[in-house]
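Let's practice the habit of predicting before peeking. Look at the sequence and jot down your guess about where helices and strands might fall. Then scroll down.
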Amino acid sequence: MIEEFWQEFLTAIGKDSTTRYVDCFHFDSSGKAANGCLALVLAGQKKATTSSIFAFECNGEPLPIAGDYSIVTDFGGDPYCVIKTTSVTIIPYGKMTYDIAKREGEDDTLEEWQVTHERFFREQGRILGYEFSESMPVVLENFEVVYTK
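Done guessing? Here is the structure:
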């Protein structure tokens, strides 16, 4: 299903079949949150995502770079859109501003963003083996939707 979706995307935009996506994922770690974030992406409200740099390191994954394509799925793994990374910024968690965080489209204040992201990073850190801190580097990935089914 994912490869068929990818091939449809390549045909729709006229890209060569050797073009690859770097990731196929859903946002967050619960069905409700993942599907909610997907809806925000499809509505054009969510234009960025923030990850712990340690998650990339723990999983042996490269950091995103501008120009990367990714497939976004719902929590069940069904593909809904292709996003293209437009820019990547690494900043300490504690230096996040609302002007930056609001691109994620999920929270109305910086404080809300901090509560939800600290909870997520603490949980993820317990699983992956890193510790959350205010100085922890986070990766802000800005993106645009370039294809929807």
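How did you do? Strands lie at 23-25, 48-52, 69-73, 79-92, 137-148.
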